[in-house]
Amino acid sequence: MLSEVLATGRRPTRDELDARRAGGERAAEDGRTLRSLIGEHLAATRACWPAVPTGSAASALTAVELAIDAFAEGYERAQRVAVRQEEAARREFIHDLLYGGSDLGRLAQRAERFGLRLSQTHAVAVAQSGTAYDESDRVTRSVGLALFSRFGNRSILLTTKDGRLICVAPGDQDDVLTYFAKQTYTATDDGALIAVGRPHPGAGGVVHSYEEALNALELGARMNLDGPVLHAADLLVYPVLTRDRDALVDLVRSALGPLRQARGGAEPLVSTLNHYFESGCIAAEAARRLSLSVRALTYRLERIQQLTGADPADPAHRYTLQTAVIGARLLNWPAQQI
């Protein structure tokens, strides 16, 4: 093509440029580097150059420019197609991994492509905030760079799903998920709540740990649990209580129902019990959390005992009252009727 351009001064034809684009696509698919390919084009130009008449230099350079531009366009197009295919395959894999929607044997084979060995034990951490995360945003890139700079190739998978940021790591490497939680919380402008599922073996174990983390996030939001990191292993009592809702409702009504007779209703006294138990039954600390005097707190505890017949300071009564308080939080009582 260049020889004809040099001989006639014409511009490259559309078919010739289309052929260069197709050549660029084939080169990208073959794994050739763009740098070496452009070098070959320039070498071919240099080989023709001694025969170039003086007046044809401009035509020759124009032809070379158009040819290389077309070639690079085809190369980049093939790269974009490959990236889109890789992204689609990754999204499909993430969906199957986290929702168990694929044959486990085939899933394990696909996992190796993304750096996971599903025969091992894995744990999952999930972060959510007021702003949805996605693969291209600043926080995801920042956390990914921090993780892989520190831990390298440790079978870590970082991804997003339904606006949440997710990290899958080997179950025996707690430091990875701890670092993920720290980096995510720091990088997220409005703060983040992070939940960590327990380690479980096999491909199904990833799904199990992921679901535990999601449940922990839901519990954290429903019960106003202190964050920013919640561990599913520390919250096992809550799912146990919610499995029999009728029994839980009966317990709350029986143990705490009489508090509705108090002036101002049950809510202030339920809140008092909650802070009292969370502070280790230390009256001074509970009073500080409630912005009350110790005397006022003591009066409330006495009123609770009068209405319910149970003494919060008595170990024999404390378990029933504390379980009922947890149940009230799970049921959003007394704000919501049960």
Q: What keyword list fits this structure?
A:
14 helices; elongated; 6-stranded mixed beta sheet
Fold blueprint:
Blueprint: H1 2-8, H2 14-29, H3 34-48, H4 57-99, H5 104-113, E1 121-128, H6 138-151, E2 157-161, E3 164-170, H7 174-187, E4 193-196, E5 200-201, H8 202-223, E6 229-231, H9 237-242, H10 245-256, H11 267-278, H12 283-290, H13 294-308, H14 315-331
Parallel strand pairs: 4-6
Antiparallel strand pairs: 1-3, 1-4, 1-5, 2-3
Fraction in helix: 55-70%
Count, helices:
14
Sequence stretches where pLDDT stays below 50 over 5 or more residues: none
What is the rounded distance between the termini?
84 Å
Spell out the helices and strands N to C: HHHHHEHEEHEEHEHHHHHH
Largest sheet: 6 strands, mixed
Residue fraction in strands: 5-15%
Describe this structure in words.
- 62% of the residues lie in helices and 9% in strands.
- It has helices at 2-8, 14-29, 34-48, 57-99, 104-113, 138-151, 174-187, 202-223, 237-242, 245-256, 267-278, 283-290, 294-308, 315-331, and strands at residues 121-128, 157-161, 164-170, 193-196, 200-201, 229-231.
- It is built from 14 helices and six strands.
- The radius of gyration is 33 Å and the shape is elongated.
- With 338 residues, it is of the alpha+beta class.
- Strands 1, 2, 3, 4, 5 and 6 form a six-stranded mixed beta sheet that branches.
- Helix 10 (245-256) packs across helix 14 (315-331), helix 11 (267-278) crosses helix 12 (283-290) and helix 11 crosses helix 14.
